[in-house]
Structure formats: structure tokens, C-alpha cells
Amino acid sequence: MVKKLLIAVIIFNTYSFASSYEKNCVACHNNMIVSIDKFFYRYLLKYSSEKNVKSSLAEYLKNPNKDNTIMPNAFIKRYGIKEKTTLNDDELIEAINEYWDIYKVFGKLQ
Q: What does 8-48 look like in DSSP terms, one character per residue?
């Protein structure tokens, strides 16, 4: 019984201290065939700048549809369009900023 309680406390603490990005983005994308970094690179190829990538990603997550997705039709037919985010604006901005910081290529290329 003590072991189960200890495991539950550890899991709760780990989850409660996880960032909005880790809880809401990575948790879902870990179960997908296409890794989360591939989505980032598609956004970067299409929108180029940090400002444009972040604003386009936020717009899509708030109102996902076929007209504002970066994914090809074959992907949409197989997986469909993502559900609208449940994150509030502050959580969404925090998650997108962390996503950007993890995968940005600017300043990393030599």
C-alpha cells in the first residue's frame, strides 16, 4: 500500500510541475507517428520568422481547420484536423514559446 501511495505522489508531483507544453503538447504528440519536431520544421519552412511561426501556430490551435493547417491532404485524410485547444491564452503562449525555444534553428547553426 505504501509503495502505491508513493508512486501516486511521484506521478502527481511530476505532472503538476510539468510545463504547459509538456502536459498538453508532448503528451499527445508522443503517441503520433509524426514527431512534434516535424510539425515545427513545416511551420518554419512556411512562415520563416519567429513572430510568424508563433502567431500562425496560435491561430491554428485556437481555430484548427483545413484552410490554416500546414499538413498535406494525405495527413488530414488519415488523421483528421486537430481539436480546438483548451488552453487559455497565457498557457498557449507559454507552450508555443517553449516549443520555439526547443526546436529553433537560429543561433544553433554554425
A: HHHHHHHHHTS-HHIIIIIHHHTTSSS-HHHHHHHHHHHH-
Cβ proximity of 19 and 98 under 8 Å: yes
For the chain, what are the domain ranges? Answer: 20-103
pLDDT in tens, 55-82: 999 999 999 999 999 988 998 898 889 8
Mean pLDDT of the region 12-41:
77
Integer Cα distance of 28 and 68 in angstroms: 20
Torsion sign (Cα): 67, 36, 31, 20: negative
Q: How many whole angstroms separate alpha carbon 90 and alpha carbon 102? A: 18
